[in-house]
Amino acid sequence: MIISIFELVPYGVTLGFSVGILTGYFGAGGGFILTPVLNILLGIPMNIAVGTSACQVLGASSFSLWHQQAKRWLGIRVAAWMGAGIPAGVWLGSNLVQCLKARGSMALAGRSVPIVDVSLLAVFAIFLSLITLWLFLDNFILRRGRDDESERMKGYLAVLSFPPMVHFRTVPHGPFSGPVLMLLGLATGCLSGLMGIGGGVILMPILFYLVGQEIKAAARTSTMLVFMAGLCATLVHAYDGNINWVLAACLIGGAFFGTRLGIRLQHNTPGKLIRQYFTFVVLAATLIVIGKLIALGLPHET
Domain spans of the chain? Predict the structure, then answer.
């Protein structure tokens, strides 16, 4: 475990820079990687890793919004409806973290392990495994032989017509249910509060496939929602004492420069390759988390 600030600062800046490169290159927040890595590589308790990662997500999404300020706020109405459900979701997720934290430790393979660490690592293993499966199907099977970068499709959830039905300029296939958008926001907020992620890794497919939003608008809406989720999660976890502020500052500082480098590296890479590379990045994160869980279950020599 990192115990000295002299060790914490360089590790934090380096890790923030690395995650920033991934964020800039793939266009998705790095919270899904950062939270388990803080625990596995730096030994940060999972509840602190979740809160600190949420703070980093807030900083990184702020940089993205700043770069978009000269553009029209395309997709902001969809973001507003989904954003209405985010605070309640964050509250639910963060309270679950606190409940797990309060349960103390458990005996595992001859040693005492915090229940919150084991539980959240298991949640990450399941979550990342499902994302990896979906990305593999989407990039190597469903997309085979077709270019859907500019394709407009009707959202799968458009059949749910709970009133009020709202017309959105960025959802071309007619009105969409406002309450359904709020429920999607609730789910996103819950993931943010529970896992310290902004939700960018799942927001793009949700907005494009489930809502039917145009792809460019979905990218901007996703950034707005990640910012909202990061802000709410940071406030709640700060209140609960789950943020290491020195580490968060180092992560945000490193991410600022890493994101800029990632964006530059992305320019000459075809979108298809970026999506496929991202699949293997998530797979690697999944294997790291599963490996940590397996290690926790192995006998510990004293």
Answer: 5-297
Residues 6+ apart with CB under 8 A from 300: 109, 110, 111
pTM, full prediction: 0.83
- d(Cα 97, Cα 113) in Å, to the nearest integer? 15
Q: Report CA dihedral (171, 173, 178, 184) to the nearest 10 degrees.
A: -70
**Residue 148 phi/psi, 5° resolution?**
-110, 20
Blockwise average pLDDT, block size 10, the chain, 302 residues: 70 88 72 84 89 88 69 79 94 93 84 87 90 83 57 78 90 91 94 82 81 79 86 92 92 87 77 78 87 75 48
CA angle 271, 274, 275 (to 5 degrees): 90
* Cβ contact 168:66 at 8 Å: no
How far is 146 from 148, CA to CA, in rounded Å? 6
Is the link from the previous residue into 205 a cis peptide, with omega within 30 of 0?
no
